[in-house]
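User: Can you help me understand a structure? I only have the sequence.
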Amino acid sequence: MRAHLPRILPELRESLLRGTFLPGDVRRVWIPKAGGGERGLGIPNVIDRVVQEAVRRVLEPVYEPTFHASSHGFRPGRSCHTAISEAKEHLEEGYGYVVDLDLKDFFNRVNHQRLMARLSQRVHEKPLLVLIGRMLKAKVVLPTGVTVSAEEGVPQGGPLSPLLSNIVLDELDWELAQRGHRFVRYADDCNIYVRSERAGQRVMASVTDFIERRMRLEVNEAKSAVARPEDRHFVGFRLRREPLDGSIEVLLSKRSKERIDARIRAMTPRTWGNTLEACIHKVNAYLLGWLGFFGICTPGIERTLHYLDAHLRRRLRGILLKQWKRKRFIVRKLIGLGVQPKTAWRRVYEGRKSLWALCHTPAVDRGLRNAHFAERGLVSLQETWKANARYVSVPVQLTLPLG
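Assistant: Let's start by predicting it. Here is the structure, written out as tokens:
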């Protein structure tokens, strides 16, 4: 594509100006969702991505200044971290219950007519509206090769879909603000904060009615609930009020714990066929990125990080024992690492221990100390978090008076 740009761009420009440009088919790809099931992505071709990015750059300055400050998804200067910051502020002010709304299959259910109507309120250039309409109606090629028409939805995967989704949900944001609710929205995840469970049930019923009747979307009843924030998953985190001093802790959600646990297991199989250093290098790359996102957690996360560090080191010990194979060779290796010969022979040959059970015996722990892995460059989640601890704060420019 890059090599052919001098020829393609003039032709593309001409077709856009004449209004003859026709988007290509969108390739459907299914990827697993963290909470189970699959998410459908729509991957446009390269030329369509260029056009979508150009449209996004035109529309974003028009819509961005008018989006509600409590909308944090896919916006400049906002992120999951700013969403958690604002949620934390609502809890500190005494709004101790959350109405957790989950929109069912949102990106595939957006009504095209309502979206085009909202766009036409601000965008008065008819050729641009026609172009957006054609991109929304682009046919979809399924993994089986079957081509289907798109009657609704904004396929995730293109540069324009995040902005269009915010334009759709901006109606919900301002409706919530008009009702005086305190809320935080990140893409199609919306949390409304209230003072009591009873108030939460009322809000859940009225807002669900607005979404389904007015916006023609569907609320997923199985995934939506009124609960304490510590019991809900929001952009990977959960919030909990500390009973002793009333401070708000930012912790990992149950789903995030399960994901990092599963990821560590996947990256450290006992059948690892490369060197220990290669495994550590691979694990470090993931852990540092993971900390870059979850590093905003408060000190309550330390216990979890300590467990993850211990679990990871045990799995690395398991890799080494598997590579050493025979028990006699394992004994010799442990003796070479400073374990007393008598202890090494007794512990390794004690009963019929599996390698997984053996890798957490005192002899193996003593031979393959924590320092053994630290010397080979293994990142410690707990120590790295301590060295770079960042506490959540709400940026001043995100505050917005309600009412």
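Now, to help you interpret it: The beta strands are 26-32, 38-43, 97-102, 140-141, 147-148, 182-186, 189-194, 225-227, 237-241, 248-252. Residues 302-324 form the longest helix (23 residues). Let me know which part you'd like to focus on.
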